């Protein structure tokens, strides 16, 4: 557990059992119940689901909703805040039906609403939330159709708030609400001057593409005044970006937003809601730091700071405490999903035994030089030996290119080089800070490659696109010290298809300790954790690897678990349809090709049948490696 820092990033949900298996657990009336992921894997495989697979632990979604709502409630009660907290889940963070249905079902007790940033997301929100008072924050650019649907939903009892992102939306809202006879609830998205750190900071500052300038806000207030509709202006919205690592940035943004709020009340707007958007981070590294993939604060600190800053800023102006809204998506769903995959092959960069020195007498002198370098290798000469080795190796490669040495000689030379590098790496282990800079990543260059049955592009797009580090670790054999250092290659034919940044005690590192395995003979399962936010729909079909199988699990109060939902991933035919092929046509065409071969006499009719059956089975199959 310590090696992979599970207790640091696991937020109290993940741990390692005495049997050396990763467990996931939650509290039931202050009694913790945990289950082993290996038991879940066994249950899932009995039901015919395949690797790779996405596993959703429903209790973690519920627990995160409780954590957010109860922590705000506690901060509000402790400080005597007069308003309340009402969260909304931004659908874009995970739009999948299972996710939204669970949030709507479990979140109802807190009046947790949804945030919609497009017409499609508004449809999802309306079909999941209860009509009576269901809070829907409508962000994004809204056309007439979007606005009409939101206004009509008001008639059913939904509280649809149109957050104005650009001044052009207002005339449409005014015209349509007059036409339909519905008074809209209007919000304004402020462009704050406060900027924040982290990956997603382009949403903050003057050059943010979202939100209204102060001048535009005043124009909107004036227009609403002119239409006698200032009572409709009820919400101020701001969003500084996702995953804000530094609480001090959040504090100062909240303070700026509060002053916007004060001024809008002074202008005569009804107000009542102050919406801070997303930004509450997830500690992917478990380092509790100001690193982009971590956070230097707790959820309790986040809630307390927001409540405190609002009170301090509004009280001198005698303004009533608003309902606090946040649009936390990432922390709500990140823990809930994990990706499991098997390792189907391993490449090791290990030298094979060398011939005796006298067997080299016929070889190219450069090969004999390599042999001598190996014999002379000592801790105080590592850099020199490295330089010589690289020089001889490159010269030998040149000779091969010109046909002057054989493939066997080249193989011998490369084996010697590997032998030297391995020994240098062992010597470097004792050198610590004295390691010459050029040799610092030698261990990484020698790391094994474990081939994982997954597509990084489909399942971990943020790892590929923005170097997001997710916790990765084997889910079993953790009572055994892992003796190999490895990177993980995925199943796509793309050199970017790899996982090569991991969590260690100092932050991040480039290799992962794994157990030695023989993939032909044994199963080895690896988990990628905290992948519930953004990964599923941002993923793509690179190399035509499709959606994985998905299973939802619920942990019961007696410590058992149920597999509550199973969704089969894409078949090859499904994927081909996405890219405009018709699998039936493909099968027909292939059948014709086989028929022609029968006519030419190259295959028999029985062989034709076998070949066509094989093609048809391929279309029905899973796109991933099937053992
Ligand atoms: N609200 C808005 C307007 C957003 O654009 C986003 C995402 O960037 C969110 C909420 C979700 O934020 P987070 O990922 O920090 O939970």
From TrEMBL:
Keywords, in A-Z order: Decarboxylase, Lyase, Magnesium, Metal-binding, Polyamine biosynthesis, Pyridoxal phosphate, Spermidine biosynthesis
Transmembrane domains' residue ranges: none
InterPro entries referenced in this protein's UniProt entry, alphabetically: Ala_racemase/Decarboxylase_C, Arg_decarb_HB, Arg_decarbox_C, Arg_decrbxlase, De-COase2_N, De-COase2_pyr-phos_BS, Orn/DAP/Arg_de-COase, PLP-binding_barrel
Record GO biological process: L-arginine catabolic process; spermidine biosynthetic process
Molecular functions (GO terms): arginine decarboxylase activity; metal ion binding
Task of the protein: Catalyzes the biosynthesis of agmatine from arginine.
Protein name: Arginine decarboxylase
Organism annotation: Geoalkalibacter subterraneus
């Amino acid at each position: 557990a310590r090696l992979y820092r599970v207790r640091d990033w696991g937020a109290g949900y993940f741990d390692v059992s005495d049997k050396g298996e990763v467990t996931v657990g939650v509290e039931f009336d202050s009694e913790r119940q945990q289950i082993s992921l290996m038991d879940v894997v066994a249950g899932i495989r009995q039901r015919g689901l395949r690797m790779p697979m996405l596993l959703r632990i429903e209790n973690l979604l519920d627990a995160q909703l409780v954590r957010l709502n109860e922590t705000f409630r506690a901060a509000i009660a402790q400080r005597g805040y007069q308003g309340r907290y009402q969260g909304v889940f931004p659908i874009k963070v995970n739009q999948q039906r299972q996710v939204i249905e669970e949030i709507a079902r479990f979140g109802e007790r807190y009046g947790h609403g949804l945030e919609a940033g497009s017409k499609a997301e508004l449809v999802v929100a309306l079909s999941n939330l209860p009509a009576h008072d269901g809070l829907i924050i409508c962000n994004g650019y809204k056309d007439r159709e979007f606005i009409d649907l939101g206004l009509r939903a008001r008639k059913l009892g939904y509280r649809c708030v149109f957050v104005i992102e650009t001044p052009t939306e207002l005339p449409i809202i005014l015209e349509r609400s007059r036409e339909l006879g519905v008074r809209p609830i209007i919000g304004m998205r402020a462009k704050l001057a406060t900027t924040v750190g982290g990956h997603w900071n382009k949403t903050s500052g003057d050059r943010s593409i979202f939100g209204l300038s102060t001048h535009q806000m005043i124009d909107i207030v004036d227009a609403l005044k002119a239409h006698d509709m200032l009572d409709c202006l009820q919400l101020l919205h701001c969003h500084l970006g996702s995953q804000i690592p530094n609480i001090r940035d959040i504090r100062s943004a909240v303070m700026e937003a509060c002053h916007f709020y004060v001024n809008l009340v002074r202008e005569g707007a009804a107000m009542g809601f102050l919406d801070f958007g997303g930004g509450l981070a997830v500690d992917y590294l478990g380092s509790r730091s100001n690193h982009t993939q971590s956070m230097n604060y707790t959820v309790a600190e986040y809630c307390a700071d927001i409540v405190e800053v609002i009170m301090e800023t509004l009280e001198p102006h005698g303004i009533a405490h608003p309902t606090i809204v946040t649009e936390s998506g990432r922390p709500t769903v990140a823990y809930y999903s994990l990706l499991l995959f098997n390792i189907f092959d391993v490449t090791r960069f290990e030298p094979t035994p060398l011939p005796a020195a006298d067997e080299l007498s016929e070889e190219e002198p450069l090969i004999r030089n390599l042999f001598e370098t190996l014999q002379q290798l000592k801790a105080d000469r590592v850099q020199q030996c490295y330089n010589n080795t690289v020089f001889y190796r490159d010269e030998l490669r040149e000779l091969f290119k010109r046909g002057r040495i054989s493939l066997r000689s080249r193989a011998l030379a490369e084996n010697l080089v590997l032998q030297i590098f391995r020994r240098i790496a062992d010597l470097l282990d004792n050198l610590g800070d004295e390691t010459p800079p050029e040799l610092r990543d030698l261990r990484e260059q020698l790391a094994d490659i474990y081939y994982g049955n997954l597509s990084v592009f489909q399942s971990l797009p943020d790892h590929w696109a923005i170097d997001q580090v997710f916790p990765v670790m084997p889910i079993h054999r953790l009572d055994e010290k892992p003796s190999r250092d490895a990177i993980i290659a995925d199943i796509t034919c793309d050199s970017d298809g790899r996982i090569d940044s991991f969590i260690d005690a100092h932050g991040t590192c480039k290799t992962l300790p794994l157990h030695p395995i023989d993939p032909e003979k044994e199963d080895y399962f690896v988990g990628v954790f905290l992948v519930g936010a953004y990964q599923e729909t941002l993923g793509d079909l690179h190399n035509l690897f499709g959606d994985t199988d998905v299973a939802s699990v619920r942990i019961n109060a007696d410590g058992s678990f149920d597999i509550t939902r199973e969704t089969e991933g894409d078949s090859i035919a499904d994927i081909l349809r996405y890219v405009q092929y018709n699998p039936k046509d493909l099968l027909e065409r292939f059948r014709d090709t086989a028929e022609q071969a029968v006519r030419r006499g190259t295959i028999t009719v029985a062989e034709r049948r076998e070949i066509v059956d094989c093609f048809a089975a391929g279309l029905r199959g899973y796109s991933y490696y099937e053992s």
